[in-house]
Amino acid sequence: MTNRERVFTALKHRQPDQVPYDIQFTQVARAKMAAYYGDPDFVSTLGNCFSWFRPFPGDVRFVEVEPDIYQDEFGVRWNRSVDKDIGVPCEYLITPETIDDFAWPDPHDPTRYDYIEKAIPRCGDSVILVSLGFSLFERAWTLVGMENLLADMLDKPDFVHTLFDKILDYSLAIIEHVCALDIDIFRFGDDWGQQRGLIMGGPLWREFIRPRIRKMYQRVKGHGKYVMIHCCGKVDELFPELIECGLDIFNPFQPEVMDVYAIKKRYGAKLSFFGGISIQKTLPFGTVQQTKDEVKRLIDEVGANGGYIASPSHDTPADAKPENIAAMIEVLQNQ
């Protein structure tokens, strides 16, 4: 099978010849592995099944405006002095008093999509995945602040509905442009969870988030593409509703907050899972043998009858041991 055939067989909940996989890295982890292998281009040899794209203007997500300060297209400035991949917002740009005056970025900017369209023919047999991070809740809190947003859900719900509707309109426009391209999967990024459950709780999720993600998921489905969500934390209580909304693939599938083996048995006929390899325990703190054993078990049990794409349960972090990363790669490549 080709990588495309493996992925689509798995997404149809049938057994491919081997479990498809994809390994992404934080900047620090990638540099460590380049040094470990003595090959700065080692990622090209991994055999990843996906080609990733993001619909940023001119393919530029952040612009460095000061040392360690990066600005995104919404005007939010992120301090990257510690977290080199995303950072922490320096200030918040929207309040109930200023929302009507906020200048939203242009989702119709053709430079978001031209480079993707030109790159697709060069992607060989890989699956084309376009990722829209910060697609609703995350975009809202980066603009108004996490504490403010959670309080406003209770105290100023009309403001939050207005804010979410504006983000929804922006995201729907992105979806329309992206899904007009020859892509396979539209991936949303929107973290709703922490280690013990939903950040905002079930009732507020259902009031503010569920109806809007359903519109986004259904828009993607209407174009015949697969829907994927990247959502960190313990959010498995939402799986029945996410399936009803149109979700096909859930990521990152964190083994520290959910029983990945039980969940595959419960939901595996209707939902596929992408992730599962522990980045909080095994890769940074385990042994080489423990890493190999975990990856093999995931392949054998979660990968049985399709519905699974093996991957670390987030971008491989800076503190992951190079020898453990190499062990994970070895098992995935030698199925």
Summarize the structure.
The protein has 335 residues and is an alpha/beta fold. Helices cover 41% and strands 15% of the residues. The chain has a single domain (3-55, 106-333), classed as TIM Barrel (Alpha-Beta Barrel).
The best one-word shape is globular
List the total number of helices. Answer: 12
CATH-defined fold name:
TIM Barrel
Per DSSP, what share of the residues sits in E-state strands of 2 or more residues?
5-15%
Task: Give the overall pLDDT as a whole number.
Answer: 97
- Measured between the Cα atoms of the first and last residue, the distance is 13 Å
Task: Give the strand order, joined by hyphens, for the main sheet.
Answer: 1-6-7-10-11-12-13
Low-confidence stretches: none
Write a structural description.
- The protein is α/β, with parallel strands linked by helices.
- The protein has a single domain (about 5-55, about 105-335), classed as TIM Barrel (Alpha-Beta Barrel), CATH 3.20.20.
- The chain contains 12 helices and 13 strands.
- A 7-stranded parallel β-sheet has the order 1-6-7-10-11-12-13. It has a 4-stranded antiparallel β-sheet with strand order 2-3-4-5, with no helix packed on it.
- A hairpin with a 5-residue loop joins strand 3 (about 70) and strand 4 (about 75-80).
- Helix 4 (about 135-145) packs across helix 5 (about 145-155), helix 5 (about 145-155) packs across helix 6 (about 155-180) and helix 7 (about 200-220) runs parallel beside helix 8 (about 240-245).
- It is globular, with a radius of gyration of 20 Å.
- The model has no long low-confidence stretch (mean pLDDT about 95).
